[in-house]
Amino acid sequence: MLLRPNSDGLIDFIPAARIQELLRRPPADASELRDVLAKSMNKERLSLEEMATLLAVTSPDLLDEMFAAARALKRTVYGNRIVLFAPLYIGNKCVNACKYCGFRCDNDKVVRRTLTDDELRAEVAVLLSRGHKRLVIDYGEHPDYDADTIAHAVQVIYSVKSEHGGIRRVNINCAPLDVEGYRKMRAAGIGTYQIFQETYHRPTYKAMHPAGNKADFLWRLYGQDRAMEGGCDDVGLGALFGLYDWRFEAMGLLAHAIHLEERFHVGPHTFSFPRIKDASNRALDPRYALSDEDFKRLIAILRLSVPYTGMVLTAREPAKLRHELIEFGCSQIDGGTRIEIGGYQKSEQEQDLDKEQFRIGDTRSLDEVIDDLLDMGAIPSCCTACYRKGRTGEHFMEFAIPGFIKRFCTPNALLTLKEYLLDYASPQVKAKGNQVLANELSKLPDDETKQQLISRLAAIESGQRDLLF
Ligand code: SAM
Ligand code: SF4
To answer: Which region holds residue 317: left if phi is over 0, alpha if psi is between -120 and 50, else beta?
Structure first.
């Protein structure tokens, strides 16, 4: 594709023709693969050509080697913490007609609803009572959901306090805004701003987004640029897998990350890689459905290609699969997820697709998810320290600064785990969690940070909250 500016002066920086050419390359051999893996293990971001090598690995032995490298990279770069969050759907009115989504404007079966401030407070109160500290808020795209309304909702959320404190970080997944809109988000104190390009393949994008603002590919593609210009330093990228060839989308994500690095000298905070799920009144071509096996390859390849980026695996996927896939590179998951608007206040767990965007696969409570993470030897973390201490671009620091994880991430994860165990955990999780805490403490070097950590854990035990490094 020619890199020609559109009428707004925007250039499509996704090199589609080059990507297609690279995807036609022959299968990778062992020495090519090992050269690329050596670069990943050296924590360097890969080029499109190098990612194409990983995508061209087909032999079972070499695939195993690649999976082992992804696992090792995750462990050495990020340690064993998994950050937990909950999505919070606030409104599902929508002017767009995205073919895969239950909220699309031409779906007259869906029940439209927007939380009032009081209803929003009630949802947040339930989330707080279950132990959540980090949220991602979600909206359809509609004139009712302008930047002022969303910024107001963020302030409402932060204003809700329980006996153990309030929500500490609100991230946003909403339609792209203009720079002024992002300034308002920043002023409201949002964490990460994320939007998913859905597909980087323009013909597919056009077919999937026939109406509404979202039909403009470049407006969306530059959403993260405008967010950066508006002062939101942590931006998330994503693609919706199942619309087109997953290998093309993986290359699109990498090209997008390279663009941000080149323009802003900082890459994306996170990658999201949702797979399409069943939705109300939806009829989709299953040709590009991504199998579980290829999903695992995708996760490993994204991990290896952009070692500094956080990776989000959502409750769209069933619990068992999430359990298996986390180790290949994921750093954030949601827990206790409900996506019906107002759904956290409902006691029944059954999903009603006419009230929700899509069907989720993992309906476990936050406590059950934490239980599972502890069984895996992971440290469940609700840490929000970097963002609140002004250390934005934290994933980059974790990854780039030697000792950062030991000095900040692990101690902060253990402090938030301690709070969870005292304030919210079931007896079973409490027992397992205390064991994991003791194990992790014993692994830390005997230095000043460890002494401070021990005294802060004791302070939490005696009633203090929200202590951070
Ligand atoms: N409405 C805004 C937008 O489209 O940018 C905000 C994001 S929407 C609340 C969250 C994401 O859900 C979408 O970007 C899309 O990738 C994903 N999604 C939509 N329909 C889906 C489906 N049927 N299965 C899985 N994910 C879906
Ligand atoms: Fe609306 Fe977003 Fe659904 Fe598209 S994906 S129909 S923009 S809510």
So the answer is: beta
